[in-house]
């Protein structure tokens, strides 16, 4: 059971970094730092979008319009942090 919990924690940590990479990429794309016509850049952007959008979409639906500021990645990071801490402090010690 410990291996399963450690695998879930690793998956949460990886998804944490994917969300951060997606946010940074969206800023680079918005400010024309990266070339949007480059196929490699488009592939990375598309992959990050497909990985993060299913988790961000429900949050964006609930959030009010903040005038162009998207804080849904921050809320998702907080949810992931809470879930990770819940697993580490509640579930994992009960198994050990």
Tell me about this structure.
It is built from three helices and no strands. It is globular and about 50 Å long. The chain has one domain (2-95). The chain has helices at 2-30, 39-62, 72-95. It has 96 residues and is mainly alpha-helical. One of its GO terms (cellular component) is membrane.
> How would you characterize the largest beta sheet?
none
Rg, nearest Å: 16 Å
Low-confidence stretches: none
When the domains are counted, the total is 1
Report the end-to-end length measured between terminal Cα atoms: 9 Å
- What general form does the structure show? globular
Could you say which structural class the secondary elements and strand pairing correspond to? mainly alpha
Count of separate DSSP helical elements: 3
Q: Mean pLDDT, as a whole number?
A: 94
In total, how many beta strands?
0
Q: Quote the beta fraction.
A: under 5%
The percentage helix is over 70%
SSE order: HHH
């Amino acid at each position: 059971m410990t291996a399963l919990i450690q695998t879930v924690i690793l998956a949460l940590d990886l998804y944490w970094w994917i969300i951060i990479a997606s946010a940074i990429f969206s800023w680079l794309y918005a400010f024309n730092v990266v070339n949007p016509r480059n196929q490699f850049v488009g592939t990375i952007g598309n992959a990050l979008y497909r990985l993060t959008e299913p988790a961000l979409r429900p949050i964006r639906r609930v959030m009010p319009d903040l005038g162009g500021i998207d804080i849904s990645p921050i809320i998702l990071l907080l949810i992931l942090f809470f879930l990770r801490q819940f697993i580490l402090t509640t579930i994992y010690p009960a198994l050990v």
